[in-house]
Design goal:
The structure holds 2 protein chains of 2 kinds. Chain A is an all-beta fold. Chain A has no helices and 11 strands. In chain A, strands 2, 4, 5, 6, 9, 10 and 11 form a 7-stranded mixed sheet that branches. Chain A has a 4-stranded antiparallel sheet with strand order 1-3-8-7, with no helix packed on it. The mean pLDDT of chain A is about 90. By secondary structure, chain B is mainly β. Helix content of chain B is about 0%, strand content about 55%. Chain B is built from no helices and 11 strands. In chain B, the strands form 2 sheets. In chain B, strands 2, 4, 5, 9, 10 and 11 form a 6-stranded mixed sheet that branches. Chain B has a 5-stranded antiparallel sheet with strand order 1-3-8-7-6, with no helix packed on it. The radius of gyration of chain B is 13 Å and the shape is globular. Classes of the chains: A mainly beta, B mainly beta. The interface between A and B is medium-sized, with 25 and 23 residues.
């Protein structure tokens, strides 16, 4: 196992609501990336956090926001949920610095259903 | 044009066969390349990084062709347990964005 944990495992929300997903990094990792994976698709990069600051962002609207805490755990917040936000949300941790910093290790994901 | 493109398959091969997947990428400035494996309803797991010189890990060989902007994964002597979706990943020129292909589905048949 990677040591990356995510909570909750599953979540059902109603359109228009807000949701917070959580991720704990692998021990020793200081970088967290979040991805959205729709059924039958590859993961889509949402953003990355390094040392508590956003360090890169994919093509997602501002209602997708995040935080990283001093212990390198992270949250993904999504406001004004839409039906298309239904997906598996994955976080991946890595260690910045050197070639191995690009090797990411994924948590089991949170499956979000918006009705 | 998509950053990363893969043939989605499916590839259905008998046990013991050799199978190869290719993946093309659009940004010539990309520096890091990976293959991940994803089992049904599970998270992606790092299979191997892809280096310019090519690299091998047991039955798996990954190669990078910068001139043609593609990476490949070769699996020799396929096992039933190799059945999964294989995702190629390429990072952005800045290094802090990662682009996944849609994945190639492999089923190894007894």
């Amino acid at each position: 196992e990677t040591g990356v944990t995510q909570s909750p495992t599953h979540l059902i929300k109603t359109r228009g609501q807000q949701v917070t997903l959580r991720c704990s990094s692998q021990s020793g990792h200081n970088t967290v990336s979040w991805y959205q994976q729709a059924l039958g698709q590859g993961p889509q990069f949402i953003f990355q956090y390094y040392r508590e600051e956003e360090n890169g962002r994919g093509n997602f609207p501002p209602r997708f926001s995040g935080l990283q805490f001093p212990n390198y755990s992270s949250e993904l917040n999504v406001n004004a949920l839409e039906l298309d936000d239904s997906a598996l949300y994955l976080c991946a941790s890595s260690l910045a610095g050197g070639r191995a910093s690009y090797e990411q290790y994924f948590g089991p994901g949170t499956r979000l259903t918006v009705t | 044009r998509k950053e990363v493109e893969q043939d989605p398959g499916p590839f259905n091969v008998p046990e013991g066969a050799t199978v190869a997947f290719n993946c093309t990428y659009s940004n010539s400035a990309s520096q890091s390349f990976f293959w991940y494996r994803q089992d049904c309803r599970k998270e992606p797991k790092l299979l191997m990084s892809v280096y310019s010189s090519g690299n091998e890990d047991g039955r798996f060989t990954a190669q990078l062709n910068r001139a043609s902007q593609y990476i490949s994964l070769l699996i020799r002597d396929s096992k039933l347990s190799d059945s999964a979706t294989y995702l190629c990943v390429v990072n952005s020129a800045s290094g802090n964005q990662f682009y996944f292909g849609t994945g190639t589905s492999l089923t190894v048949i007894p």
